[in-house]
Amino acid sequence: MPLITNINEAKAELTRLIQARGGSIEKTEDLTLRKRYGNFRFYTKEGEVFHLKFSKQLFQPRENVVGGAADLDNKLKFATKHFGNGDNSLNGIDEDLLVELLELEANGYQTYFVTVMSDGRVLWRTGREAYEFVQRYDTIAHFPRSYSQPICYIPTGWLVNRSNIISNPPSLLK
Amino acid sequence: MNTIGIDFGTGNTVLAEWYGTQSKIFEQVGHNGLVCSDVALDKNGQINPTPVQELQNLSEYTIEKFIKRKLLNALDAEDQDAIAYLTGLATQRLKYVFDSYTKATTEKVVKAVLTCPANTGQAYRSVLMEIGRQIGLPSIDIVDEPTAAAVHHGLAETATSNEKWMVIDWGCGTCDISMIERKQGSKDLKVVCVEGDNNLGGSDIDILLGKEIAKKYQKPIDAFNPYCIEKIKIALSSTEEFSEDIELRNGSTLAIKYTRNELEKLISPLLDRFKALIERALRAANWLDSGVDKIIATGGPILMPSVKSIIEEIADDSGADLYDSDPLTSVAKGAARLAEIKRLGGMVVTNKVAKSIGIRVANDKTTDAYHKVIVRGEDRPVTRQVELTTSVDLQDIIEIEIREGDNDISASSNTLLAKLNAVVRPESKGNIKIKLHIALNDSGALEAYIEPIFDKSAVREIKAEGIRLEKGQKETATGELRTDDPVSEFKTQAIEAEVDPDTARQIYERLKIKYHPDRQPEKREYWNCKLRELDEHFNEYMLEIEKRMHASSVPNLPWGNPAELKTIIIDEVLANRLTHCLANNIGTAEQIQLMTGLLKQFPDYRRVVASYLFGVKQNPILQKLLAEDDRPQVGTVVLLQNVQGKSIKERHEVLKAVYRVKEEKLRELLKDDNLDIDKLYEEVPKLAEVAKNPITGRIGNPSTTVQSGDGSIKLTYERDWTWIYGVPQDSPHAQKIIKAGFKWSGKRGAWFADHKVDNKVFE
Known about the structure:
The structure holds 2 protein chains of 2 kinds. By secondary structure, chain A is an alpha+beta fold. In chain A, 29% of the residues lie in helices and 29% in strands.
């Protein structure tokens, strides 16, 4: 039974987490208006941008790929093998949206790429980390079959699950 | 304007006001101003605030006795239900007394002093303060009961010589001894030490006596009406023998005969405890030899001849003057006098901290360690501070529990006073640093506040439970995009975290933009200055890294045991060290041989190596390592990511081009003895093949986006078509878009042209 069933619940979950962490949302950008379904951006007063994606099922590289697509699949398999921490799946974001996060960083924002999963996990990395990963390991589908935009893939296991508030007593400073 | 003092005792509650030149008991309630502190509850459990002594037919009520003592015990046991219940009862009792007073007076009360046993800690003081606030008392101070009694007996006058006072406060619930010192010519009081027994009170005498009489007359203890035993005790203070018929609960009468001698014999263990307490106090104050100048005795049991004689004996032995008048009201009268003195100012009362105050902290072994911040016996008022940091990675909330007690075994074995939850920016553990200030102020209240160290935006919000944040600290501190100091932010994020040059540069670049002077032109000078400082720190840090790169140490690893060495899962710090050793040929030939294999266990070693290479610009060993790697592109991308002064879009295209350069050519470029990273950045796009769909063989990007000359419109090219997204049909730009040959596509919600439209059309 999924905990989060649609993008609205995912938005509510991320809003809760941002607020619980002391952030206050200044504005929300609905990327559906740009036909990027399931993508939202939350801007906080603290100068952060959370790029939200909701995902029910993630992409996994296929086992035996031959021909032109094999190169990309090998790269994706390499990424999941070394950085997936046991998780074979990958998380996608449109290339131009990821570059936009870098541009936002250049304007002084701290950006995060956040994926809310239907099982309740909230996975994230900073926009820059995500971008640099895909560039280094070329995990970009430059010519996706069914979509006009190149898609950047990030191993799900490489993302950090932050669905719970981490609360602990302090340590003494020596 | 009136000032008042309220003594909420286990037996009685008394209110006194300062009246011109002296304290006066408010006598319109209770028995000449003595209101029984016990509270009656009717059959429905509803509180009847009327004093018990004024109620008819007590058998219809349940009497809650010894509320204060039970509250003290509940606080020690941290029994939250009992605390809430007893606090409610105490509030009702005090409210009744205070409301009766405000109805009877036309003057406005401007200052109130509440009293508490000297040997009680902050938990009870905080509860009392909260009760005072709830019933509407203005400007509340909490004062020790013995101190208040001493003030009533003249401690408020200027001392004519150095004086040592012993104040004995034996009440219904507790017995406290305060040793007070004053210097010649000063009014200020200094409590040298406090000793007390919270289970030695007049009520203990009543309990012993009740059991004894029940046994003597073979009746169950609950056969006696409430307060009849206390009456026998009080009567025996003035007569040698009590001989009367008393009415039992069932309506029958019982003839009681009991002598003072019998009582004194019965309570002799309590009297011994009392004597021992006095001796302990004299020893703790170091006054056993020097004696005391004055003794003040207050509280109900003082009226008992056996107790009185013990005190008189001590006074005779040390040649001290004894003041024991008004034993039932002197605390309230002194409190009223203190309220007036505090209103006017000019007298400092220094008390002793009765129980240590500390916080729960996490260490290597436990998350329930106790760290004392204010130690028992310190003078109060007192303020102490402690520097704290996050104990786990990405910690969102620092839970600060302020506890009271002296049990070092664990934090949870001490009484919880308050909680402060600081919501902080999630970072690696140890990065966020805060300073916690804890103060026990002059009014008896506990104050605490949190202050971030260095980075003011680190603490975003503070949630307080059981404590009022003082010093104007807001519960919600809205995080600021700008802190006052980009340098401290760089120190926290880069220098203290010892990040690699690549990450340091990223942080530096982000801060340069975040604190750009154009964002606040009216403070341009200030921000320019701050950014110059940031430049200096960044350059210093890069030099520091460079120095480290030339250091000659070998990582501390089990070189002698290759099998163990191979099982080590290395982290980034170790990867950096190994890269350093490889680059500088540090270590024996055998060690160097093992290093490469070890380094490659770290999945992101290519980034680490390339980042190091970027720092030193050229290094044949690292260049060879990257060139001969199965993925030479990764190192090349990292090198090119670090090239300064390029736009995001341009860099993006160059990085993408790396994977279109023939692998052999890339290896050749990386191996080049004259490697020039800036030149490599220029070379890569020229050497890259044209982007081609690997399946269809089609050339070109499926989609690119360009801006119109004035920046108002973004054109997206897909195949041979052009799209404009995000501009609605009713936009002011609609006309010029239509003029450029676009049509509205309702399906996509965007403008569409079936050919490639030049962005210059909109200029």
